[in-house]
Model the fold of this input.
Amino acid sequence: MPHPLGIAIIGSGFNARFHLQAFTGVRDADIRGLWSPNRARAEHAAALARRLDVGPEAKAYRSIAQMVADPTVDAIWLCGPNHARIENVEELTDAVLRGRGELVGLACEKPLARNVAEARAVLRMTKAAGLRHGYLENQVFAPQVSRGRELLWARGAATTGRPYLARAAEEHAGPHMPWFWRGDLQGGGVLNDMMCHSALVVWHLLTEPGQPLSSVRPKRVTGHIASLKWTRPEYARRLKRTMGADYARHPSEDFASVTIEFETKDGHTVLGEASTSWSFVGAGLRLSSELLGPEYSMSWNSLDTGLNLFFSREVKGKEGEDLVEKQNAEMGLMPVVADEAVAYGYEAENRHFVRAFLGKVKPALTFDHGLEVVKLLMTAYRSAEAGRTMRFPAPGLDRFVPKVAKGTWRP
Done:
């Protein structure tokens, strides 16, 4: 088995840069390079990898096929946009099947795909190419989530009974790039973009450590979506000017909530409540989670950082994200997330999947789990469109595409 693991990254944007930063804390891996349809951005990201010393010889590849053919590349991290997912996996697996290169594994960012049909295609192509696969969901690897879950199950559940309610939320003021705002490209709105995080976090928290996710089975799903901010005329005009998205004609939801009723293997009913928002107004990105049981609870809020800075009106400066992701202000009392790649779980996530692809541990999350998450998201959309609770999985999911993705949804 290769050691260290040679990794190449598809994508050169915000998410790919987070992974590069995270690899500074990961042993047994080197970044070999990146590919992006934007050559200049790929070159810039490769320079960042060299500067961070996570890939001393990192380069920009001309194509995904060239990346696969590089004998120093053992695994690929797929961090490109949702609408390119099928095309990217097709090129990658075709190169492997034609014998143009050998790979150990493929890790893919959330969501696995825009809908169930596409998610099944990604899983099918990956398995046909004989690749190990890892589903990149950073928030279940966040230190507070991991440690809180471990302690509550070891101390609270062991003596007073299993937890029965988990909550998770991800909230900010809106995505960085134009394609996120377009339902036809992204696959939906904030539910598809971020509920993949929150839904899996509640499922993870309710699952006993050491047991598979399948030991807690989703039974019923209630979803709700709304456009609370970005279809208001003044904000729709701003969005069209800055991102090119026309929410007056083709809106996407900027708020979503989901309640998932689970059944445990011993017959208990437990609940997960998840919400996501592009209409949150605060210092910046806020991640939160809770887990409650008969005699115990945990809570986490990523903006409770332990470090705050204050800037008076006399402090002038340009807008940035040097304090917190999706930063909304540069004045007043502001929280600082000192190391976001660690706090949000990217470092622990990458460490785990490097070890998994080196054969040292079994992957905690695979594309099979990613497919189940997409089923949850599509069932939530079905529920929101129908205005009622749906059994999981809802019928017809293999053919279902949300109205938001088709451009026919009206708030």
